[in-house]
Design a protein that fits this description.
87% helix; 4 helices; homotetramer; mainly alpha; 0% strand
């Protein structure tokens, strides 16, 4: 995972959330707030996918190629779990 | 909309995002990052739904009971639009 | 709501699901099944949004312009409820 | 993947969609249609997650433990791709 890039994206998201707080303070229109929240959700979804992409290209390969069956199963079960949460929502 | 409550929830979300940044800085496990991001997405979804709830109980009632047909259509189209984005994702 | 169009879209979705059944029977590749299921989910999301759009342009207007406060609240609460489910997922 | 179970679940989903068609034909209330569509979306999400779970416990293990680098990359990229679509929606 590109640590610097991930932190940069999180800082942007944090700034976006702070911007929404200021919008609420200055009585912005509800629908404009909702649109901004939807944009933050989309940015988080992209970041999420990017972290999983790195994960399967590193930790998963190590675990699956390793000989520790319990560790392998743990890593596969985690991926199934986060996918399940994403797919059902 | 309860302004103080909305800002409080946004500040919690902002703090949550900052917590994820610290996790990345201290090399947290990818899957733990993904779980935290999913938790932030869920919190944003709840806030989103709560803002829409206030909106339809205030602005929408005013617009639909008013006599300005263009304004009414604008308000209804906005709700259809944000719902459409939510429903397809 | 355009009844004929809604039924046509549902029949397409039903056919799409039957197509996935045939894919399973002929041992299609898992990822191809997942992609088709995601396509069906997207089609249902669009249909969902289209039904809500008709609903707010008919039933909602009638309820909000009417004088029955309990009925009005019922209709608004339903919209908040289905939006909430869509937004959090 | 349990083929018989997958087909059974798809047949249930297909029957659910046909039930919604009948609801439309008999002029069911819009919100009831939306709720049924949301239920079908949830069932598809669960099936989706279940298919991915089998996939990573079979094809993925074979590909990652194998020596064909292009095949391994293909399988990992597919998982990243379907996850990305799920996470952003």
């Amino acid at each position: 995972m590109d640590k610097a890039d991930t932190i940069k994206r999180l800082k942007n998201i944090e700034g976006h959330v702070r911007g929404i707080e200021r919008m609420v303070e200055s009585d912005a229109y509800c629908i404009d707030l909702i649109r901004q929240i939807q944009a933050v959700q989309a940015a988080l979804g992209k970041l999420n996918a990017s972290i999983l992409d790195s994960h399967i290209h590193s930790c998963l390969i190590t675990a699956v190629r390793g000989e520790d069956m319990a560790e392998r199963e743990r890593v596969l079960a985690e991926i199934a779990e986060v996918y399940s949460l994403a797919a059902q929502t």
